[in-house]
Design goal:
With about 150 residues, the chain is mainly beta. It contains 2 helices and 9 strands, in the order H-H-E-E-E-E-E-E-E-E-E.
Length: about 150
């Protein structure tokens, strides 16, 4: 349910919807938000320290650093279940934790994470290598009966 709500929220943001009107007093109560710089919670700056993540085939966690002057949201845009994000919502600067499941197939795969702040949108592409192939060989050992004298 949380994922559906996040995707719905994220879809609305991407469709150009604005944040609900917040009074200056409400904005002042939010840490890291200055109403003079971020009217209605929308930021004027959104930067990420990564645009691409090259993931190994093993399960792993990666961190994206967000620099923002407003309220931001993050979600896996492609709906892939092998990749998820923690810290889906933030105010001002923060981090997003990306969780990647092990890739047990031999094919590489990719997903996109979208981060929005008002009308500002940034994308991080995650490409995960395929798992190692196993070349199992069958060795046949034939024993012959010999006599020992």
């Amino acid at each position: 349910m949380k994922k559906i709500a996040s995707i719905l929220f994220f879809t609305l943001l991407c469709a150009g919807c604005n944040y609900p009107e917040l009074s200056d007093d409400e904005l002042k109560a939010l840490p890291g938000v200055d109403p003079k710089e971020t009217p209605n919670g929308a930021g004027t700056n959104l930067a990420l320290n990564k645009t691409d993540i090259a993931a190994t085939a093993a399960a792993a966690t990666y961190t994206i650093t967000v620099t923002s002057t407003g309220i931001w949201a993050a979600a896996v845009a492609t709906g892939d279940t092998w990749c998820s994000v923690d810290n889906e919502l933030g105010i001002g600067n923060g981090t997003i934790t990306v969780n990647v499941s092990a890739n047990t197939t031999t094919s590489s795969r990719s997903a996109s994470i979208l981060v929005t702040d008002g009308t500002l949108i940034r994308t991080v592409t995650i490409t995960q290598k395929g798992g190692a192939t196993t070349n199992e060989e069958t060795t046949t050992l034939t024993l012959e009966k010999t006599s020992i004298s």
